[in-house]
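Handoff note, outgoing to incoming analyst
You'll be picking up this chain. Sequence as last confirmed:
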Amino acid sequence: MKALILSGGKGSRLYPLTYTNAKQLIPVANKPVLFRVIEAIRDAGITDIGIIIGSGENGRRVQEAVATGDRWGVDITYIVQEAPLGLAHCVLIARDFLGDERFVMFLGDNVIEGGISNLIGEFEQADYNCQIVLTPVEEPQHYGVAELNPDRSIKRLVEKPRTPRSNLALVGIYMFDHHIHEAVRAIKPSWRGELEITDAIQWLVDQGLKVHPYIHHGWWIDTGKPIDMLAANSKVLEELVPKIEGFVDKDSQVDERVYIESGAQIINSVVRGPTIIGENTRIVNSYVGPFTSIYHDCVIENSEIEHSVILEHCQISDIPTRITDSLIGRHVVISHSELKPRAFKFTLGDHSRLGLI
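Most recent structure output, in case you need it:
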């Protein structure tokens, strides 16, 4: 089998972070989401991977970060999508790479519990023409939705229906055989101007081909919004194997659910897990609470943080109020000054959100 990862898109719901970085490269528990997708595919035994990227700066950033795939023992082929014309359009432009082989298509900003090895194994051994992954969600109108027949076969698929007929959303993981190539050529653009993968799968159903719904009952998160990134970070941190590779001084308290990466230093501080502290990061006279990821080369001093994601090269010092529920981008400086007159001073990018008390 081959794999196709979709890693285009502007990630507008994550502005301003995605002005300067691809959304798939934002880390969850100190590892970019795209890297987690590549590892899940590799662990399922697939090493020939195509990545759909945009034609702009974010596409270049993905190429720089992933390179040839050698670090994971996989071979990467990049396929440029000039405009966001839909998931089925991604299959259309990847035809030469995919050939007639079976393949898995995986959205590069999704995180799923348990990986995909069992899914791939089931699809390889069965005679399905397509296998889709479904999961119950509270607001199905925001997703592609599957309506099933009484025998659990697929009756209908609808993309973002105003009135959903079920709560089963399509997780961003699909498995196809060669029939999908005929399907994506047969469908027409939707009202959004996109070739919808739901329409292509519906075409397979209408042609009498075997489309198997796999219902996933573990957690799954689409990391498209800040609240989703924090949720994914918390879920992955709970599965992290604790380890201390850095330095913890005798005046610090670090509980058994914490991962401290190499070069990190914990000085006169309290760190409670599940939490990860990145390489060469210094935590000094501070408190880092549960469900927090602090990436590489940061400095946290005389401050308190919990349930947050802090990206690389940040400096947070002398903050009198605890920081919580926050997603803080790269090279951010947050500090407190006693100079008079006392006032807030901000330099904020477009679409920033700032809460004050």
